[in-house]
Amino acid sequence: MMESFRIAMHAIASNKMRSLLTMLGIIIGIASVVAIVSIGAGTQNELEETFAEMGTDSISLQTARGADLSPSEEFTMTDVEAIANRFEEEVRYVVPSISGQATLQADIDDTGVSVSGTTADGVEINNLEMVSGRFLMDHEVDEYRNSVVIGDDLAEALFGDGQAVGETIHLKRGNTTSGYLIVGVYEAEESIMGFSGYTIYAPYTTVDKVMNLNGEIPSITVKVGQDVDVEDFGNRMVAFMEARKGNAGESKYQTFSAEAIMETASEMLGLLTTVISAIAAISLLVGGIGVMNIMLVSVTERIREIGIRKALGAKRSAILQQFLIEAVVITLIGGVIGIILGAVMGNAAGNMLDMKASISMDAVLIATGFSMLIGIFFGLYPANRAAKLDPIEALRHE
Amino acid sequence: MLTIQSLVKDYGEGDILVRALDHVDLNINEGEMVAIIGPSGSGKSTLMNILGCLDQATQGSYVLDGVTVGALSENELSEVRNKKIGFIFQSFNLLPKLTALQNVELPMIYAEAGRKERKDSALKALEKVGLGDRSHHRPNQLSGGQKQRVAVARALVNTPAILLADEPTGNLDSKSTEDILRLFQELHREGKTILIVTHETEVADHCQRVIEIRDGKIAKDYYNKEVIQK
């Protein structure tokens, strides 16, 4: 075994250029798979972090898309309170949420913004960190005040380094424009996509009024306690609401949670990574065929050597081992170089995309094992051909 | 040491059947130095291949050093070649990328000897053929005569029962031929059994016993009185 290994190293070293070219296919294949998998894993981590910040303990109850609801089936503030009472033990916050679009009228340009109507608990539901000022207060909600909380990115865009709290912004919806007092600035999270748009928080009562919803609430958001299973809670919340509205089984409500989105996104990402890796793996197959080709050439070139070795007492298995190990060593070296190259490529791509590529030990081990398998699989045929050579014929070979 | 009885070797079959060896009987005793001569096509190469366990006979028996070769599997034949036979070829058949020492070590690798033991024995064999100082040279750095001496060292390293030399001086000049024949005679005096296939009468003259093959049969089998007296 040790000897076969030494013979293999010798053969590879004495044909450096050819060995390197043979390895190239394996190097490229393994490097692309490793790079793709590490970028995929990095994106996955990023995704999880982002959703964790959004709060995986939050879930929203909404009316199902396309459902035809009678006015009595719409949510109202009474429903919000009913949920808070019914699930008192499990929930930490229950807030109504109304989202709408508005145009922010500023000096130079008008900018589209999202306005999110909520209560004083909105700061908790949305995991907001206040930079200056404060969040909305109960009396502002009760009194339909034109108070808003904006992100620090918007504050900087509007007021530069100056103080935003206390300033007024003008929001236009339809034909109506109103002034709103900035009472606080929160720390806007950078989204993975780079730009998330500006979100402004305002009392839900105010938003309800502006949007003429007459007290209807499109969505109820709940933040559950630590040990509560979000998905299970969501199902019970839907059942509770259906019982309340007398429309059980009609699927008029649905839930929406960061966790569910994350799962879907992860699944999609995993699928994407697998598909791209599979495509990259085709280059591994091509590389393997290259190895087989070179091994066949190597066997043909060394027919006489094989004859000599057999005359000196080498058994079939010894010749088989010699050529098989040569093939495996070539693919293994190619695999190791490929892993290093793939890690470098993954990191470089990660830096460009402003995220951290993550190379797992699993990926490295699988890549190493896989390149060895390629060596065995594609080396077996040439090695077997060498082992089966007739010593007399082989010795006569010029 | 070596006995064959009514050995037959056929090639092909049916109409194109060629009988290369036709009921050959031969007995070679331990310590003999025998030349096998004959024109090309006489069957001496076939006999050589069978004696060397590279090929198997169609009929007849072959017993080498107590082992009945005819019944052996391919792996067992490899083992016999490795342990009982030392080959010396016309074209030396050294591996060009290995040093003299590594070439001599080869049969011991297949005998699964330890590294230290291998190196010691190989070095001893090289010293025996007078090339102890050339052990790290590669074949292309050696003269023809030196290459053949490395090959002899390689044939000796596993202390085989017989040395089988196929035209060992065919590629050598007269000076080197002298050297190699002297080496064979020295080995012969030490009691080695040596078989040399040759068509050179000069080589045959150095051997104690000469067997002439013609048309697949033993035509002559005689002893060289001069050599015996030496």
Explained architecture:
The complex is a heterodimer of chains A (398) and B (230). Chain A is of the alpha+beta class and 398 residues long. In chain A, 56% of the residues lie in helices and 18% in strands. Chain A is built from 13 helices and ten strands. In chain A, β6 and β7 form a beta hairpin. In chain A, α2 (16-54) runs antiparallel to α9, α9 packs antiparallel against α11 and α9 packs parallel to α12. Chain A starts with a helix and ends with a helix. The model of chain A has no long low-confidence stretch (mean pLDDT 87). With 230 residues, chain B is an alpha/beta fold. Chain B has helices at 44-51, 74-84, 100-110, 115-128, 144-156, 174-189, 201-205, 225-229, and strands spanning 2-11, 18-28, 33-37, 59-64, 67-68, 85-88, 162-166, 193-197, 209-214, 217-223. Chain B starts with a strand and ends with a helix. At the A-B interface, α10, α11 and α13 of A face α2 and α3 of B.
Structural class of chain B: alpha/beta
Gap between N and C termini of chain B:
23 Å
Largest sheet of chain A: 10 strands, mixed
Total strands of chain B: 10
Multimer state: heterodimer
Write the layout of secondary structure elements.
The complex is a heterodimer of chains A (398) and B (230).
Chain A: H1 2-13, H2 16-54, E1 58-63, H3 77-86, E2 91-105, E3 110-118, H4 122-125, E4 130-133, H5 138-142, E5 147-151, H6 152-159, E6 168-173, E7 176-186, E8 199-203, H7 204-210, E9 219-224, H8 230-245, E10 253-257, H9 258-301, H10 303-311, H11 316-352, H12 361-387, H13 391-396
Parallel strand pairs in A: 3-8, 5-7
Antiparallel strand pairs in A: 1-9, 1-10, 2-3, 2-6, 2-9, 4-7, 6-7
Chain B: E1 2-11, E2 18-28, E3 33-37, H1 44-51, E4 59-64, E5 67-68, H2 74-84, E6 85-88, H3 100-110, H4 115-128, H5 144-156, E7 162-166, H6 174-189, E8 193-197, H7 201-205, E9 209-214, E10 217-223, H8 225-229
Parallel strand pairs in B: 3-8, 3-9, 6-7, 7-8
Antiparallel strand pairs in B: 1-2, 1-4, 4-5, 9-10
Helix pairs in contact in B: 3-4, 3-5, 4-5, 5-6
